[in-house]
Amino acid sequence: MKIHYFQRYHAKENVATANTMLLLSRLYQYSSDKFFRFLKSEFFSDSFEPEIVFNLQEKSIDSIPDATITQESFKIVVETKMSDWFYTDQLMRHLNSFSDEKYKVMITLAPELMAEDKKIIFEQQLKKYNATQTSHVIHINTTFEGMANAIQEVIDDRDYEMQEVLDDYLNYCYNDGLITVSDSWKFMRMQLAGATLDFNVSEDIYYDNVERGFRAHDYLSLYKNKSVRAVGKICARIIAIETENGMQYEAEYGELTEERKQKILRAIVDGDEHGYDLRTIKHRYFFVDKFYETDFKKITPRAPMGTRVFDLTQILETEKLPGTQEIADQLTTKTWS
After folding, report:
1. Residue partners of 75: CB distance under 8 A and separation at least 6
2. Helices 13-30 and 32-42 meet at what angle, rounded to 10?
3. Which of 248, 247, 251 is nearest to 237 (CA)?
4. Helix-strand-coil percent breakdown of the chain, rounded to 5?
5. Percent share of the chain, pLDDT over 70
6. pTM for the whole thing?
7. What is the dihedral of CA 14, 18, 113, 84, to 10 degrees?
8. Which of 302, 238, 182, 156 is CA-nearest to residue 166?
């Protein structure tokens, strides 16, 4: 059984907040450099230098000490809601949480962004407040999904431990309804195929251990030999396991058809040939309409060791995705690292 990092089955704000803070603390423990990159990219300006700075012979007003060790002060105040239930009076009272920090940020966090009219009212009052302060408070309105996406930007496919933590956080958010309107339509998940690539492409199917969490995505791609070789649009996800009473199926998404049952049985046999236990270990089967051949090359030397999620709108530089065949064709002109 998979051990989860984050509490489940609770819809209370304090649990959602605690899990999000745990995610951030795990990022900091994993890599303080990537944690501070996350803060700078999402909440603070480029002039913000939260890391400890070591200087030799830094000139002060009256002397030049041999060395100094400094860290600029900052504070982040978080208000979490389970929907857009933010109240200006409460947020204004939260400003009393700040003191003389140089950098101040208030984050309003919820499954959905704050209503524009409500945001305008609060930020008008915040502007009046900032006019009386030496250092201003920055307001950042974001979502649980936005927070996860921002962390995804600072970790890479070789940050295996942190990627597992992030996947579990996303899984928690999906299960507890904290990600309500997903932008899965633009994400392509890359999976390592290797020896099973030919079978996967011929059957338009891919399987993975059901214990592995995943970010919602509409497109699935398969990697082998320094390149993404195939891409398809997901049309069904079905969980299956062989029991003493025969096969058990659970359709998560899409229809459980006889044809898909037969593909799962063929996948189990193919897995046997490669030493994968798809019989007694529950697996999730991803079905695509069709895998289209592509050649989306990785240009850096080290091979990926796990999954990777790509934002196709960024890769293809478009706000609206074309059909899957055209996505595959355009990916052949792109590279990644």
Report:
1. 97, 98, 99, 101, 103, 104, 105
2. 120
3. 251
4. 35, 25, 35
5. 90
6. 0.67
7. 0
8. 156
Q: How many helices (H) and strands (E) does the chain have?
A: 10, 14
What is the rounded distance in angstroms from the CA atom of residue 148 to the CA atom of residue 109? 12
pLDDT tens digits, residue range 71-117? 778 889 999 998 878 999 999 999 999 998 888 999 999 998 998 99
**Beta partners for residue 248, in sequence order:** 241
Q: Classify each residue of 71-87 as buried b or exposed e, where b means 16 or more C-beta atoms within 10 Å of its C-beta.
A: eeebebbebbbeeeebe
Distance CA 165, CA 148 (A): 11
Quick one: CA torsion of 240, 244, 245, 246, rounded to 10 degrees?
A: 40
Maximum pairwise Cα distance, the chain: 84
Residue whose token pair is 């012979």: 57
Residue bearing tokens 């339509």: 185
CA distances to 74, 97, 151 from 135, in Å: 11, 14, 27
Terminal-to-terminal C-alpha distance of the chain: 33
* Average pLDDT over all residues of the chain: 87
Q: In a 10 Å sphere around its CB, with 0-12 CB exposed, 13-18 middle and 19+ buried, how is residue 313 labelled?
A: middle
Long-range pairs of 1-9 with CB within 8 A, sequence gap ≥ 24: 1/211, 2/211, 2/212, 4/168, 4/171, 4/172, 5/165, 5/168, 5/169, 6/168, 6/169, 6/172, 7/172, 8/172, 8/175, 8/176, 9/175, 9/176
> In the structure, what pLDDT confidence band is assigned to residue 46 with cuts at 50, 70 and 90?
low
Is pLDDT at 229 greater than 90 in this prediction? yes
- Chain-centre distance of CA 13, in angstroms? 20
pLDDT band for position 3 (cuts 50, 70, 90): very low
CA 85 – CA 118 distance, rounded (Å): 10
